[in-house]
Design a protein that fits this description.
100 residues; alpha+beta; 4 helices; elongated
Length: 100
């Protein structure tokens, strides 16, 4: 699959949830939900079954019992930036997992 198509697919098909981030940030951290948790079902990826199996083996510590890739991002104080970072990490992990 084309890299750009995979990036778009991840952006359109991942489920996001938001929470308050820990750490420093003054009053801002107590009022806004900037932490992003990305959920991406592996079985729905537009890949061949062998590639999905490689991903499942390669990313076992990041996949929950429902077969979803889970990524947490809270490195910035911006929800948008954390969402972008989570999507980029999902792409990198899937791309690395596909390789034999």
């Amino acid at each position: 699959m084309n890299n750009e198509k995979l990036k778009i697919w991840i952006k359109e098909n991942s489920q996001l949830s938001f929470a308050r981030s820990g750490g420093s940030g003054g009053q801002h951290v107590n009022k806004t939900e900037t932490k992003v948790v990305l959920h991406l079902p592996i079985n729905t990826l537009p890949l061949e079954e062998t590639e999905k199996q490689r991903i499942l083996l390669h990313l076992t510590n990041r996949i929950n019992s429902s077969g979803e890739l889970i990524i947490h991002s809270s490195s910035t104080r911006s929800q948008v930036q954390n969402r972008i970072k989570a999507e980029e990490l999902a792409f990198k992990l899937i791309s690395a997992g596909i390789k034999p």
